[in-house]
Design a protein that fits this description.
- The complex is a heterodimer of chains A (115) and B (110).
- Chain A is mostly beta strands and 115 residues long.
- Helices cover 0% and strands 55% of the residues of chain A.
- Chain A has no helices and eleven strands.
- The relative contact order of chain B is 0.35.
- In chain B, strands 2, 4, 5, 9, 10 and 11 form a six-stranded mixed beta sheet that branches.
- Chain B is mainly β.
- Chain B is 0% helix and 54% strand.
- Chain B contains no helices and eleven strands.
- Classes of the chains: A mainly beta (115), B mainly beta (110).
- The interface between A and B is medium-sized, with 27 and 21 residues.
Chain lengths: 115, 110
């Protein structure tokens, strides 16, 4: 298995532009998570899905952020409009269902810079 | 207050040293516990799960104290390759979200 695949690996955009981050989870993993990592705040959970349904989006910072999971093999995180404070590394992770000690596998992350 | 709190570090230790990391969690409903490792500019990866009775994996020993809501990680005979950030992680529902601590940076020097 190729693991969790994220794209793009790096994104530099101007303030006000729309940014879309993409994630392909590991096949058979029913949970998908979007995290944001910064030096100041560490790893923050933004939203997670179970069987393509959003379960908890309380970590989504503002209405500018939205996430979708149209099917079991694809998810997007969109920021519109982007702001410099959105600059961070965004990780997608997936996990097997129903086992409390199941490992979460992370993608390599998307390093977003908003200028 | 963060739900999972860790020693901020950095810990600078010589090769061969024993080093211990501590972590506290605030949600008493937490059911599952883990230590993840993150190398510089890489993604986090599972180091080990933490079992109620404590568990060992080679040079690494993890302990859980539910009464005090405290988790620890002990690294014996540290190697240069152990240099990384160690993340304490909890989960309070089956298969659900993982809550990460801020991480503790370890630097092992020759």
């Amino acid at each position: 298995d190729a693991g969790v695949i994220q794209s793009p690996r790096h994104e530099v955009t101007e303030m006000g532009q729309e940014v879309t981050l993409r994630c392909k989870p590991i096949s058979g993993h029913d949970y998908l998570f979007w995290y944001r990592q910064t030096m100041m705040r560490g790893l923050e959970l933004l939203i997670y899905f179970n069987n393509n349904v959003p379960i908890d989006d309380s970590g989504m910072p503002e209405d500018r952020f939205s996430a979708k999971m149209p099917n079991a093999s694809f998810s997007t995180l969109k920021i519109q409009p982007s702001e410099p404070r959105d600059s961070a590394v965004y990780f997608c992770a997936s996990r097997k269902p129903g086992v409390g000690l199941a490992e979460a596998f992370f993608g390599q992350g998307t390093r977003l810079t908003v200028v | 207050r963060k739900e999972v709190e860790q020693d901020p570090g950095p810990f600078n230790v010589p090769e061969g040293a024993t080093v211990a990391f501590n972590c506290t969690y605030s949600n008493s409903a937490s059911q599952s516990f883990f230590w993840y490792r993150q190398d510089c500019r890489k993604e986090p990866k599972l180091l080990m799960s933490v079992y109620s009775s404590g568990n060992e994996d080679g040079r690494f020993t993890a302990q859980l104290n539910r009464a005090s809501q405290y988790i620890s990680l002990l690294i014996r005979d540290s190697k240069l390759s152990d240099s990384a950030t160690y993340l304490c992680v909890t989960s309070y529902n089956q298969g659900g979200k993982l809550i990460f601590g801020q991480g503790t940076e370890l630097s092992v020097k020759p």
